[in-house]
Amino acid sequence: MIKEFKDFIAKGNVMDMAVGIIIGAAFTAIVTSLVADLINPIIGLVTGGMDFSNLFVNLGEGDYTSLAVAREAGAPIFAYGSFITAVINFLIIAFVVFLLVKMVNRVKDSAVKKEAAAAAAPAGPSQLDVLMEIRDALKK
């Protein structure tokens, strides 16, 4: 059973998946920063200084100045701004993954085309052809 587990882990697909998960986790931090620090301020500028991440509806009693204060007080809230931010994060991640897959497919296609061109190229003379040429040259 341990040998089977070692064989499973040693396969390339499992290692590729592990690397993908680690890179994905690191990439999530980059995209979160991109959205929070670059895109949301631009959207806020266009919408008159609105910050999506702080948008909420208080479902209970009381008046709260920010989402953080409402959450700290334990108030029932409908934090639709956080959802909008999550949707923006998802769309950016999906677009970047699309671009990466497109780039990888382009690289793979060019490699396949090079291999096909190399296979289609005429091969040089075989060893028998060279020996026959030497024989014929020596006869003259």
How would you summarize the topology of this molecule?
Layout lengths: L1 H9 L1 H35 L10 E2 L8 H7 L3 E2 L1 H41 L6 H13 L1
Antiparallel strand pairs: 1-2
Helix pairs in contact: 2-4
What does this structure look like?
- The radius of gyration is 30 Å and the shape is elongated.
- The chain has one domain (2-139): Orthogonal Bundle (Non-ribosomal Peptide Synthetase Peptidyl Carrier Protein, Chain A).
- By secondary structure, the chain is mainly α.
- The mean pLDDT is 81.
- Helix 2 (12-46) packs across helix 4 (80-120).
- The chain is built from five helices and two strands.
- Strands 1-2 form a two-stranded antiparallel sheet.
Provide a concise account of the structure shown.
The protein has five helices and two strands, in the order H-H-E-H-E-H-H. It has helices spanning 2-10, 12-46, 67-73, 80-120, 127-139; strands spanning 57-58, 77-78.
Mean pLDDT rating = 81
Give the terminus-to-terminus CA distance.
71 Å
> How many helices does DSSP assign?
5
Instruction: Indicate the radius of gyration in whole angstroms.
Output: 30 Å
What would CATH call the homologous superfamily?
Large-conductance mechanosensitive channel, MscL, domain 1
The tally of strands reads 2
Along the chain, the helix and strand elements come as HHEHEHH
Low-confidence stretches are: none
CATH class: Mainly Alpha
Largest sheet: 2 strands, antiparallel
The assigned structural class equals mainly alpha
Q: Estimate nothing, just give the exact number of structural domains.
A: 1
Architecture (CATH level 2) name:
Orthogonal Bundle
Strand order of the largest sheet: 1-2
Strand content: under 5%
CATH fold name, please?
A: Non-ribosomal Peptide Synthetase Peptidyl Carrier Protein, Chain A
The outline comes out as elongated
Helix share bin:
over 70%
